[in-house]
Design goal:
Helix content: 55-70%
Radius of gyration: 24 Å
Structural class: mainly alpha
Largest sheet: none
């Protein structure tokens, strides 16, 4: 969760994607139908751009679901403790 909350994973993905794109554009990586072996009737490839707002929304959503998951886990563990506790008669 810490890696998600701090944006570490997103930065690693962005860095890797940038390196890949640079390699494609420089011709170091061939993508058939994208930067080589094109035919006359090919259409340009649209690249998905993700806004910062989308990233922040995802981060907030993950934080909320993580807290809810932790709360549910704590509740279930407490139920198990109560069920496993010795009964006094």
């Amino acid at each position: 969760m810490k890696g998600i909350e701090t944006g570490w994973f997103q930065r690693q993905i962005a860095r890797s994607a940038e390196e890949f794109q640079r390699d494609v554009e420089a011709g170091g990586r061939i993508l058939v139908g994208v930067n080589d072996y094109l035919s006359a009737d090919d259409h340009p490839v649209e690249i998905l751009k993700v806004s910062g707002d989308t990233e922040e929304g995802q981060r907030r959503g993950l934080a909320v679901s993580g807290r809810a998951r932790q709360r549910r886990a704590a509740e279930r563990l407490e139920e198990l403790r109560r069920a496993a506790a010795p009964t006094r008669t």
